[in-house]
Design a protein that fits this description.
- The complex is a heterodimer.
- Chain A is built from 30 helices and 36 strands.
- A seven-stranded mixed beta sheet of chain A has the order 13-12-27-26-25-14-15.
- In chain A, α10 runs parallel beside α19.
- Chain A starts with 17 loop residues before the first strand and ends with a helix.
- Chain B has one domain.
- Helix content of chain B is about 70%, strand content about 0%.
- In chain B, α1 crosses α2, α1 packs across α3 and α2 crosses α4.
- The two termini of chain B are about 15 Å apart.
- Classes of the chains: A alpha/beta, B mainly alpha.
- Chains A and B meet through α15 and α22 of A and α1, α2 and α3 of B.
- The structure holds iron/sulfur cluster (SF4) (3 copies) and FE2/S2 (inorganic) cluster (FES).
- The site of one iron/sulfur cluster has 14 residues of chain A, from α7 and α12.
- The site of one iron/sulfur cluster (SF4) has 14 residues of chain A, from α7 and α12.
Chain lengths: ~950, ~80
């Protein structure tokens, strides 16, 4: 694919009414509301333009796009003039040509004429337009006033701002407002003196800018330009692929020179992101070629031995013989595997197949265990399918948006921008979060209600909301009657109307004033289309699954399911959480969420796989770790996951890893878990392999190989080699064949194929005979389980309670620039925004402890202690402290406890009772971590120096 | 496995089903959940613990666990 995108000038309009007009002698029919510019472009006539672009509302400032309309005076701007029935438009005439040349002449007279050496050369709209209008001379000379000496702002690590090249078209300003919703840019001054500026004449780094890249994308000149393009030059081809960071699953065009990525450009045809991006997917890909990448297989007998570099065959043979030895000595169930939400669907499918078919047990789990396993359980129990109900586009039809325990502007930035856009259009917002997340108050957005609850009281709050809906008669009787199970509903209603669930009764527990709950419930039930978006602040609790069911109850009771604008929407953390769950990586479920005890399903798989399958559920990750400590579990194959950093109670995890005899880690870096490994199998980044990811809206999108894998193998090939060495044959020649197998075995994927993905770009499952092009909205006519199931969701306080010894509640979260355990983003310039995890603490809690901003503080829980630097802020409420977990040495999980969700064992990351006090040195754990880490890096270096 | 961890897990499950007004349904709920989600070695250990008095288990958890069907060795080996 080339690198030039056809820009139709103004955004698409949808309307039932069509309008026909004549443009340059041709009849053109378009939806009402379309601009003349777009109508012309769609018919193949391109009108010169500078300030218009099809991702932004037209502005009409450059005057280059003027046209003539029969019967109208003057020369209207085609970008701001809508079509009308019967218009006769001329886009070319000698008068128009003269005006356009004059306009261009003015622009060029204040523009440096260094085209040949400019980074945008060959991809610059100003240059193109000068050519299009036939500009041959510039009469004004360069000696007059100009901006040619304005200094360049290079403060952002990824792009530069060179005001000398700016034509003040304000596309950047509008992109920052309309697309991103940050409002970081303004046009200062008037007329000739006007200039673009970030914030109050600050540089980009010091402004509100979040480095999403929308302005750079919108800029028609080299004023805002990626540093990678300045350094490497323009790309020669592009490949469409999918971001490997978060669950939004943005589509990108990887612009390439040979096998080198020049830049990642958000794909305007991308169904999840419609041309927008965030700092991670757009810019933070440098980790892919970072010097820390390990590209050779390695083995060692003990974790205190140096690594030995070996061939693929040796490494695989060694791992296979160890697994078989352990099984012979300790039983078939003594080994297992972990897949990751960072891997493709095809890779996770293959790992669970290897465990079930080659290991012969069901000991397979995925990192979704620690994030969204309660979503799977809760939504399957109530609605019948373990997935969100909507497409992202649905938010455009929402009137009320409830955000619970999620921070979309940081965790799911591109969707966060969509949501903010809808809120600016007037939708109402209810935020349920212990912390004042950015969404509560941002430019032109303000929450109608912020229920600032105490961590751990989600279920009490959702019950209180439902109590108000039911007792005040705000429920949707006809929906419930037609769509839900009457018996279950009656039982639930008896429970929920009980006065113990009233907002007043629960106020002392939740800390939320009853009146606020009543107001929020009334708004949710009566404000039109109401949608719920939630994140890990819902799932990562001892009542995570209960809360997910409470959310589904509320949505069903108010009839907010089964159409656009409503629904229950889990915001998935990592790129392929949905997919890894779909692919059967839980120990009790085969692909498509079918229980291993279900004989018909098992027989289907046994037929395809030619092997007998175990009918009993296997071990979950925490069970594997417990079993490792008691000696009944001794070998593990971990693909793309870092349990030593991301799982709770780190000291328990590392003790379990140390107790195992064979830990095989397949990853791109020597991550924390790999420091406990005996076999290291190098992995490939998303740029180095083919496959698919499934985002939070069930959208399956292609991942395409743009460069050869540094280690020579794509990850699925490695799993296949291991399976063959274990004696269970696998013979795929391309991931498309794996997808074909998934489609044969999984009814919701029956219609999915690489050919169809190629044709349609992406597909939302269920995709089968009934829905050959996929399903944007689920449960439209009936629930997947038939009748919606109301579940009694009694509030059970967590056992993690504050005490005199541990008087504060620690809760955890993430920030925009870093991703998950940070293994990728820490190895990019994104560290300029966040180079360490810090502890947020309220001024009053800080004061009584004598803690000042920036002080080192010890954070001690019942599980352990770590030391972080304090940030004093009123974002957190008194009694609550908060940190992120992107850096291993922070040891955030040294302090989290082993409490977990009752149904799924998803850890209770969001509630840990702690004490905080000023300290002068790292914790004992941090000292041990440092010395172990140093030892491991030295062992790695010894191997590398042997090689050299 | 460390039995107290299994006891805690079983108790957490029982606290959810305690809200069920019909006692038989509640017992079935706990029993069904453990059968569907626990690996056989965990079920065997918790059943043995219940048979030996089940210290630390809630009443509902103890009742449900003691009704778990026996787990045969062959299935886990
Ligand atoms: S920086 Fe680019 S987009 Fe912004 S006003 Fe200048 S030329 Fe236009
Ligand atoms: S990078 Fe994004 S946030 Fe920053 S100024 Fe540009 S559009 Fe605004
Ligand atoms: S929003 Fe998520 S998927 Fe999109 S670019 Fe950012 S990290 Fe990637
Ligand atoms: S493109 Fe229409 S006025 Fe600039």
């Amino acid at each position: 694919m080339g690198i030039r995108y056809i820009d139709l000038g103004t955004p698409v309009r949808t309307s039932e009414r069509e309008v026909t007009l004549e443009i340059d002698g041709t009849q053109v029919t378009v939806p009402e509301g379309t601009s003349i510019m777009r109508a012309a472009a769609e018919a193949g006539f391109s009108i010169p333009k500078l300030c218009a672009t099809d991702s932004l509302e037209p502005f009409g400032s450059c005057r280059l796009c003027l046209v003539e309309i029969e019967g109208r005076k003057g020369f209207p701007a085609s970008c701001t003039t809508p079509v009308a029935e019967g218009l006769v438009v001329r886009t070319q005439s000698s008068a128009l040509a003269k005006i356009r040349r004059n306009v261009m002449e003015l622009y060029i007279s204040d523009h440096p004429l260094d085209c040949l050496t400019c980074s945008a050369n060959g991809n610059c709209e100003l240059q193109d337009m000068a050519g299009v209008v036939g500009l041959r001379e510039v009469r004004y000379g360069y000696e007059g006033a100009n901006h040619l000496d304005s200094p360049k702002d290079t403060s952002n690590p990824y792009f530069t701002f060179d005001p000398s090249k700016c034509i003040v078209c304000s596309r950047c300003v509008r992109a920052c407002e309309e697309t991103q919703g940050t409002f970081a840019l303004t046009i200062d001054g008037r007329g000739f003196g006007s200039v673009v500026s970030a914030g109050q004449n600050e540089d980009f780094m010091d402004s509100e800018c979040v480095s999403c890249g929308a302005c750079v994308q919108a800029c028609p000149t080299a004023t805002l330009m990626e540093k990678s393009v300045i350094e490497k030059g323009q790309a020669e081809r592009s490949v469409v692929t999918t971001c490997a960071y978060c669950g939004v699953g943005c589509s990108f065009r990887a612009e390439m020179q040979g096998t080198e990525v020049v830049r990642m450009v958000p794909n305007k045809d991308g169904h999840a992101n419609h041309g927008h991006s965030c700092v991670k997917g757009r810019f933070a890909i440098g980790y892919a070629t970072h010097k820390d990448r390990i590209t050779q297989p390695m083995i060692r007998a003990s974790i205190h031995d140096p690594w030995k570099q070996v061939t693929w065959d040796e490494a695989i043979a060694h791992a296979a013989s160890e697994f078989r030895r352990i099984q012979a000595e300790h039983g078939r169930g003594a080994v297992g595997g972990i897949t990751s939400s960072r891997c493709t669907n095809e890779e996770t499918y293959l790992v669970q197949k290897l465990v079930r078919a080659a290991f012969g047990n069901n000991n397979v789990d995925t990192c979704a265990r620690v994030c969204h396993s309660p979503t799977g359980y809760g939504l399957k129990t109530t609605l019948g399918e373990s997935a969100g109900t909507q497409a992202f586009d649905s938010v455009e039809k929402s009137d009320v948006i409830m955000v619970i325990g999620a921070n979309p502007t940081d965790g799911h930035p591109v969707f966060g921008s969509r949501m903010k856009r809808r809120l600016r259009e007037g939708a109402k917002l209810i935020v349920i979060d212990p912390r004042t997340i950015d969404l509560v108050r941002s430019p032109h957005v303000s929450a109608s209600y912020h229920l600032k609850l105490r961590p751990g009281t989600n279920v009490a709050v959702v019950n209180a909301l439902a109590h108000v809906v039911m007792t005040e008669g705000l429920w949707n009787e006809s929906f419930v009657e037609a769509r839900c199970d009457g018996h279950a509903f009656a039982k639930w209603r008896d429970f929920i109307v009980d006065p113990q669930n009233s907002p007043e009764a629960l106020e002392s527990e939740t800390g939320v004033p009853a009146e606020q709950i009543r107001g929020a419930a009334r708004l949710f039930a009566t404000g039109g289309n109401a949608a719920i978006y939630y994140g890990l602040g819902v799932t990562e609790h001892s009542q995570g699954s209960t809360m997910v069911m409470g959310i589904a109850n509320l949505a069903m009771a108010t009839g907010n399911i089964g159409r656009e604008g409503v629904g229950v929407n889990p915001l998935r953390g990592q790129n392929n959480v949905q997919g890894s769950c779909d692919m059967g990586s839980f120990p009790h479920e085969l692909p498509g969420y079918r229980h291993v005890s279900d004989q018909i399903t098992r027989q289907l798989f046994e037929g395809e796989w030619s092997v007998r399958l175990e009918p009993e559920p296997g071990l979950r990750i925490p069970n594997m770790l417990d079993a490792a400590l008691d000696g009944s579990f001794r070998g593990i194959y971990i693909e793309g996951e870092d349990i030593a950093q991301s799982d709770p109670d780190t000291q328990h995890v590392t003790a379990a890893l140390e107790a195992m005899e064979c830990v095989v880690v397949q990853d791109i870096f020597l991550n924390e878990t790999a420091k406990y490994a005996h076999v290291f199998l190098p992995g490939a980044t998303f740029l180095e392999k083919n496959g698919t990811f499934t985002n939070a809206e069930r959208r399956i999108s292609p991942v395409r190989k743009v460069m050869p894998p540094l280690c020579g193998k794509e990850d699925w090939e490695v799993t296949q080699m291991l399976s063959n060495a274990l004696g269970y044959p696998m013979n795929y020649s391309h991931p498309s064949e794996i997808m074909d197998e998934i489609a044969r075995l999984t009814p919701t994927f029956a219609g999915v194929s690489y050919d169809k993905l190629e044709r349609l770009g992406s597909l939302q499952w269920p995709c089968n005979a009934e829905a050959p092009e996929g399903t944007p909205t689920m449960h439209v006519h009936e629930f997947v389980r038939g009748k919606g199931n109301f579940v009694v969701t009694r509030y059970v306080p967590t056992e993690e309670r504050t005490s005199r010894k541990y008087p504060l509640i620690l809760t955890t979260g993430r920030i925009l620039s870093q991703y998950n355990v940070g293994a990728q983003t820490r190895r990019t310039p994104n560290v300029v925004w966040h180079d360490e995890d810090r502890l947020e603490i309220h001024p009053s809690d800080a004061e009584v402890r004598g803690v000042r901003d920036g002080d080192w503080v010890g954070v001690r829980s019942r599980a352990g202690e770590t030391v972080l630097r304090a940030v004093i802020t009123e974002r957190v409420q008194p009694g609550v402290v908060y940190t992120t977990f992107h850096f291993p040495e922070s040891g955030a999980n040294v302090i989290t406890t082993d409490n977990s969700d009752w149904a799924t064992n998803c850890p209770e990351y969001k509630v840990t009772a702690v004490q905080v006090e000023p300290v002068t040195q790292p914790s004992e754990w941090q000292k041990r971590f440092r010395s172990f880490s140093d030892e491991q890096l030295a062992l790695l270096a010894r191997q590398e120096s042997q090689e050299a | 496995m460390e039995i107290q961890r299994l006891v805690k897990m079983a108790n957490d499950i029982s606290r959810f089903f305690e809200a069920e007004p019909d006692h038989d349904e509640a017992v079935k709920g706990v029993l069904g959940h453990i059968s569907r989600f626990w690996d056989p070695r965990m079920r065997r250990e918790i059943a043995e613990h219940a048979a030996a008095g089940g210290s630390g288990l809630t009443d509902l958890a103890r009742e449900a666990v003691s009704r778990l069907p026996p787990v045969t060795e062959a299935r886990t080996a």
